[in-house]
Design goal:
The chain is of the alpha+beta class. The protein has helices spanning 3-11, 43-51, 56-67, 80-95; strands spanning 17-21, 35-39, 98-104, 111-117. The strands form two sheets. The protein has a two-stranded antiparallel ribbon. Strands 3-4 form a two-stranded antiparallel ribbon. β3 (98-104) and β4 form a beta hairpin.
């Protein structure tokens, strides 16, 4: 993903997207936007995520820069709860809402599998 792609995405909001409500309600932003247009993950995005290029923060910021289709919206101002909501939206639309994982019960040390719905 590159800057040119991000600029195109923000200028051409006719790309496939959905509107994601922000848990903060936008009260912390100058523009008071309570929702943002977010594009869906593509195979190129998934390849970038799996490549491990850069640290976690850079990967997330690059992803947000390329997937938020709001002209002039400053993604560096997003608070954590809104970032998490956008990332969960992207995960749900790409991989589904079920999240399966393995956990160790601290009481008895036994491992068990569980699923949560995001």
């Amino acid at each position: 993903m590159d800057n040119q792609t991000a600029q195109y995405a923000q200028q051409n909001i006719s790309l496939p997207h959905d509107v994601v409500p922000l848990p903060s309600g936008g009260v912390f932003y100058k523009n008071k936007k309570s929702s943002v247009k977010v594009g869906y993950l593509t195979a190129n995005d998934e390849n970038y995520l799996m490549s491990g290029l850069g640290n976690r923060e850079n990967i997330i910021m690059t992803l947000l820069r390329n997937k938020i289709y709001e002209p002039g919206f400053d993604i560096t101002q997003l608070i954590d709860v809104d970032v998490q909501a956008i990332l969960i939206f992207l995960r749900n639309t790409s991989f589904g809402s079920e999240y399966n994982f393995s956990v160790v019960d601290p009481a008895n040390g036994k491992r068990f599998e569980t699923t949560i719905l995001l």
